[in-house]
């Protein structure tokens, strides 16, 4: 299943939205690499990018949260940390078992579902808070 960016995923914070678009694109690249049989090297290259970009994105979100004293920072960070752990486990499984289509599908389904739910819930709340603080700072 490919993932599509649409307005229902827009948090209203340009930097966060742009990074979310990149994450969805990377997820789709992983699906494509597997479904087109591009080989282990391409699958792992795409997976490594997705993993690295996710870590960078989480760091950027957490910096915004600390900059503006987001009240749910610790909860949001814990959610990020738990997801990074889950991705680490899935990545190890892919490396140990090999990136067969079934396992890549399991990984992309898990990552995709988590990402969409996280954006529409935790990130919407956080982005609205940050945006309010940023607007107040420019007045």
Describe the structure.
The chain is mostly helical and 139 residues long. It has one domain (11-137): Up-down Bundle (Four Helix Bundle (Hemerythrin (Met), subunit A)). 81% of the residues lie in helices and 0% in strands. It is built from four helices and no strands. It has helices at residues 14-35, 40-67, 73-97, 101-137. The longest helix is centred in the C-terminal third of the chain and has 37 residues, at 101-137. The model has no long low-confidence stretch (mean pLDDT 92).
Low-confidence stretches: none
CATH architectural arrangement: Up-down Bundle
Instruction: Kindly estimate the percentage of residues that lie in beta strands according to DSSP.
Output: under 5%
Summarize the amount of helix as a percent range.
over 70%
Number of strands: 0
- CATH class annotation: Mainly Alpha
Number of helices: 4
H/E order of the elements? Answer: HHHH
What does the largest sheet look like?
none
Q: What is the total number of structural domains?
A: 1
**Radius of gyration using CA atoms only:** 16 Å
Mean pLDDT: 92
Structural class category = mainly alpha
Distance between the termini: 44 Å
Give the CATH topology: Four Helix Bundle (Hemerythrin (Met), subunit A)
């Amino acid at each position: 299943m490919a993932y599509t960016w649409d307005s229902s995923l827009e948090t209203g914070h340009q930097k966060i939205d742009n990074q979310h678009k990149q994450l969805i694109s990377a997820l789709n690249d992983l699906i494509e690499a597997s479904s087109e049989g591009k080989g282990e090297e391409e699958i792992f290259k795409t997976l490594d990018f997705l993993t690295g970009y996710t870590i960078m994105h989480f760091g950027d979100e957490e910096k915004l949260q600390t900059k503006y004293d987001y009240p749910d920072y610790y909860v949001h960070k814990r959610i990020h940390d738990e997801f990074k752990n889950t991705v680490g486990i899935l990545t190890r499984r892919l490396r140990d078992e090999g990136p067969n289509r079934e396992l890549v599908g399991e990984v992309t389904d898990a990552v995709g579902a988590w990402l969409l739910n996280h954006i529409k819930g935790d990130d919407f709340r956080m982005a609205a808070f940050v945006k309010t603080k940023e607007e107040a700072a420019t007045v």
